[in-house]
Amino acid sequence: MPSRYRDELVVRCGGQLIVTIDAVDPCLCVYPLPEWELIENKLRELASFREENRRLQRLLIGNAVDLELDASGRFLVPPRLREYAKLDKRAMLVGQLNKFQLWDEDAWNAVAEADLAAIKEPGALSDELRDLIL
């Protein structure tokens, strides 16, 4: 991670992160602690009598792990989360506005290539989205 991003991240979260599975993509989500607290509050507000809410709560909260950045801005991902995301030797840390996604490099490259091809299809983007990338 470039030092300017690492330094900003350390300032924003005091070096404290939460990592959990991504319930949609085969990667991990890495949240600065203040951002995770917002997600946790939203999950807490979900009606617990709905199975889909309980399922999402179990997956995200049940797999959440507290991490701390070391002096060099590194963190150690627990083995069960590395296995979930199939992280081996090379990984990609991808910024996603309020969080990061941690991907196996080959998986990230495949998804990025597929996403790029998909948005090039005629009519694939609404006018609102097209205005964002012009």
What features would you describe in this structure?
The chain has a single domain (3-104), classed as Chemotaxis protein chec, CATH 3.40.1550. The chain is 48% helix and 19% strand. It has helices spanning 3-13, 33-45, 51-62, 79-84, 105-119, 127-133; strands spanning 16-21, 28-32, 65-68, 91-95, 100-104. It has a 5-stranded antiparallel beta sheet.
List the helices and strands and how they pair.
Elements: H1 3-13, E1 16-21, E2 28-32, H2 33-45, H3 51-62, E3 65-68, H4 79-84, E4 91-95, E5 100-104, H5 105-119, H6 127-133
Antiparallel strand pairs: 1-2, 1-3, 2-5, 4-5
Mean pLDDT: 87
Q: Which regions contain 5 or more consecutive residues with pLDDT less than 50? A: none
Q: SS-based structural class?
A: alpha+beta
Strand order of the largest sheet: 3-1-2-5-4
N- and C-termini, Cα separation: 27 Å
Number of strands: 5
- Gyration radius, rounded: 17 Å
Keywords:
single chain; 134 residues; alpha+beta; Chemotaxis protein chec; 19% strand
In short:
With 134 residues, the chain is an alpha+beta fold. The protein has one domain: 3-Layer(aba) Sandwich (Chemotaxis protein chec).
